[in-house]
Amino acid sequence: MSGGHFNYNQCLIPEIADTIAIEVARALLPKPQKVHEDYWTIDEHDCPWSHHNYCGYREFKTYEEAECFLLSDKSIVPADHNYGISHIRNEDKVFRSTDLLMRDTNDAEDIPLLYTIYHCVYDHYPYDANVLELNEETIGTMKQAYLQIRKAYVYAQRVDWMLSGDDGEDTMQSSLKEELDKVQQEFDNKDWTCPYEGWDEDE
Prior knowledge:
The chain is an alpha+beta fold. It has helices at residues 13-28, 63-71, 136-163, 169-188, and strands spanning 35-47, 50-53, 76-78, 94-101, 112-124. Helix 1 (13-28) runs antiparallel to helix 3 and helix 3 packs antiparallel against helix 4 (169-188).
């Protein structure tokens, strides 16, 4: 068989199915234990709509430790309000610079650099873990996508060979049914923890 009516573009289709199977297998892997994070950071608000971490991404064990570090800079003092900055919550304790101003404020408005202390509490998987979290419905949809793409490859290959003159119309129909049945059987018996199980690259 030579084919070529579709410039062999159908050969790319199995790569999509392979990728889906790999991602399903990754989603089915046992999940590692999550890491618990609980620390405080300092945000510097340098313009009315953005902020960044103050003095690099420093982490503090307690609020008091973070506040002590912030106020060790004698040019920073407690502020009596948040200056109407929308991303600063009213309940946040705000600090301000006594000598530096925000950029990109209204021409008639001078607002000092502001600082807030943020509590980070969350659980996450180890950053080097290859984890994919998907619910059962999504995994089921991906399995069906795998099946339909595998079938699409069979259709594309058989039509290609027929249009290229390698197969007659009757051969196309009989081979199509045989190969689609094979794909369905492979799907019905597939071990989804082994991405390439059941896949015949010579189909």
